[in-house]
UniProtKB/TrEMBL annotation:
Top-level EC class: hydrolase
EC number(s) on file: 3.4.11.18
Protein keywords: Aminopeptidase, Hydrolase, Protease
Protein name, entry field: Type I methionyl aminopeptidase
Gene name as annotated: map
Amino acid sequence: MIYIKSKNDIERMKKAGNIVATMHEALRDYIKPGISTLEVNEFCENHIRKSGGKPVQIGYHGFPYATCTSVNDEICHGFPTEYILKAGDLITVDTVVEYDGFMGDSAWSYHVGEASEKVMDLMKTTKECLYIGIEKAIIGNRLGDIGHAIQEHAEGKGYSVVREFTGHGIGKDMHEDPMVPHFGKPGRGIRLEEGMVITIEPMINTGKWKSVIDDNNWTARTIDGGLSCQYEHTLAITAEGPIILTKQKGEEDYL
């Protein structure tokens, strides 16, 4: 069932989204060579709690951390560990925050120290995919319009689009209907309506799109060891167009 949000609901969701956004803004300077992904997780959890939010990933189906920290070939749901980040690594940090009964969800990717041209191009293309998908999130369009636009752009640049994991509805629950694929055919799928709130979160790989799951039964990584990158926003479908609820300051200029 798809839950339509009121304008008041959306305003409340902005507050949850702002906590996630300011966390990612702070990570720009925090992430650097020599720190562990566990330290990244601790930094994020502290920011969320100090901002009055609740890190709702903790305990979700047994997930033990406030964030997912996915490095290099890890697609999503990476466990924070003692792994020490080194120059050239690519890390995606994903979290969901509850504030005043509503959720905000955003993943963002960062290069650690100086990055290769390969990493930078993957990051640039993935971020472009996010914004291209958001542009299609307007009343009357269908979910297939979003997925098709993302797939066409990514594959046109020589990358692949992960299919096992999708965007989703969000509101009082972390995951609501509908599922939002990042691939597909235009004109197919559920039609977008005013008041729907969804995430768009393309995961783009340098190699094949298929994944394998680690022994922890959570972490997905590329099947061929290729790099993976992800950017995600929570957004509301409105008569004025899509409103990004997790928007960061200066995000368009920051890789």
